[in-house]
Amino acid sequence: MIKLNTTGQTVKTWQSFLIQKGYLKGDADGIFGPLTQAATKAFQTAKGLVADGIVGNNTLRKAAEDGFTAPDSAKPQPGFPLPNTIDAVFDLSHYNPNPEFVRAKAAGMIAVFHKATDGLCPTPEDTKHCVDGTYADGKAAAQKAGLLWGAYHFGRNEAGAKQADHFLDVTGIRGNVLPVLDFEPVTDKAGKVLSSTMLPDQAVKFVERIKERTGKYPGLYSGASYLRELENNSQNHTALSQLKNQCWLWLAEYGHKPNPPADWQWTFWQYTDGTSGPWAPKQADGKPLDGVNAYDRSLFNGDEAALRTFWESHSI
User: Fold this and answer.
1) What mean pLDDT do residues 274-283 have?
2) What is the DSSP code (8-state) at residue 22?
3) Region label for 98, one of left (φ > 0), alpha (ψ between -120 and 50) or beta (otherwise)
4) Going by DSSP bridges, is the β-strand pair 266-272/177-182 parallel, antiparallel, or unpaired?
């Protein structure tokens, strides 16, 4: 987006286009001032657009029809939702109190993932830390409301197979639950990755144990940048290759579009935490979508029928 007081090469390129088309007189100085704004409004009016003086996606598309080539930083971003996708999935944990599943379904949600477990339970007293206390009630309420149900385990630097057993002890090995391993770094406030982060080999053990006990591979939730970082280390290649081949991917990336690492195909794309990212859902009054509040939201790579078929075939 280019607007009043923006400066730089992108503005200069836009000004050169306006000068070429006769909307702006003078030189392309790279400063989006009042004259450039007025010229932009004139272009928008001529093209039947809202004359707001802001160079957004619609203006860029019309300009492209007239031969304008935008720098990468100014090229139109894809619309939302993406073609052949459905925006109908959200996820939550005990950090999201009092979810309103009935209202969420009425607002268009079809499925929900819920945190079930976190690492291992060294002692019975640790249960409150390694089992999400809202999981059981959430499952009952969500399924009663008619939502599809998924469960995820937050992986830690502990025995992968034992973590899988712990996860299945909570979710059960039958019950129409779509299982997922949350494979992401644990960081401190400064962003430093901590030693409690699950290792790729442990993730493989988790995934294989779920398959051994249920006959289904779980999904893998992870961030695009984190997967790329791991792939840069040759020691991780074998484990990551196994995960890529065995698991469907739930990608976390709060950008304009999903950008998974090479050869990874996404099934779900978590595009916002409810407030972050360009596609964070808002109502006209600025409040998050009714019934979903500020929960994480995801697209499914397909239509509703495909989502329901996928959920049924991959659930345990």
Assistant:
1) 81
2) T
3) left
4) unpaired
Residue 303: strand, helix, or coil: coil
- Sign (positive/negative) of CA torsion 47, 53, 54, 55? positive
**Residue 78, preceding bond cis, omega within 30 degrees?**
no
Does pLDDT of 10 surpass 90? no
Residue with tokens 């051994």: 212
Q: For residue 90, what are the β-bridge partners?
A: 112, 297
> What is the pTM for the complete model shown?
0.77
The DSSP result for 154-203, as a single string, is E-BSS-HHHHHHHHHHHH-SSSSEEEEEE----B-TT-PBPTTBPPHHHH
Q: What are 6's two structure tokens?
A: 């923006």
pLDDT higher than 90, residue 5: no
Neighbours of 182 (CB within 10 A): 22
Q: How high is the pLDDT of residue 7?
A: 84
pLDDT of res. 284: 58
Quickly list DSSP for 7-18.
BSHHHHHHHHHH
